[in-house]
Specification:
The chain is an all-alpha fold. The chain is 67% helix and 0% strand. Helix 1 packs antiparallel against helix 2, helix 2 packs antiparallel against helix 3 and helix 3 runs antiparallel to helix 4. The protein starts with 25 loop residues before the first helix and ends with a helix.
Length: 137
């Protein structure tokens, strides 16, 4: 009995054969892309309309919103560099939290650190898969 090809256990998920995509399942990638795009747009709108965010904190938060929306758009296009954008967003968010001048939102800081770790792990997973392919394993 023939079983259909499965992407379970495949380190590159349902991404393209040439390895340009993100190493996750296509459905998860689409959901994450839409989520990041929506959150980036909402974050950008809130930065524009907030009067209490000024100075360097406003610039960092605005840049983070653009990065998050860009991450969502590039995830929807299945581009691997979206993980680098996500990692940069996490770093900027952590830096912005400390430079904000107000109290640090610990749940947001924790989430940004965790997202950064996940992005690093996905980047490392893709690198390991590419090294395994090059080594003929």
């Amino acid at each position: 009995m023939s079983q259909p090809a499965s992407t379970y256990g495949n380190p590159e998920g349902a991404s393209k054969e040439n390895g340009d995509g993100i190493p996750v399942n296509a459905g998860l990638r689409i959901v994450m892309g839409v989520g990041f795009l929506a959150v980036g747009l909402v974050q950008g709108f809130s930065v524009i309309t907030a009067e209490e965010i000024v100075g360097a904190s406003a610039v960092i938060e605005g840049l983070a919103a653009v990065l998050l929306a860009g991450t969502g758009a590039t995830m929807l296009m299945d581009r691997f560099y979206s993980l680098y954008l996500l990692l940069l967003w996490a770093v900027l968010g952590a830096v912005g939290g400390f430079l904000g001048g107000g109290p640090i939102a610990l749940p947001a800081l924790f989430a940004q650190i965790m997202v950064g770790i996940v992005a690093l792990a996905a980047i490392g997973q893709r690198g390991a898969a590419m090294r395994a392919k090059a080594g003929g394993l």
